[in-house]
Amino acid sequence: MEKIITARIGGQTHDGLMAIAKEKDRSVSYLVRKAVEQYLEEVGGKKSRKRKEA
Question: Model-level pTM?
Answer without folding.
Answer: 0.73
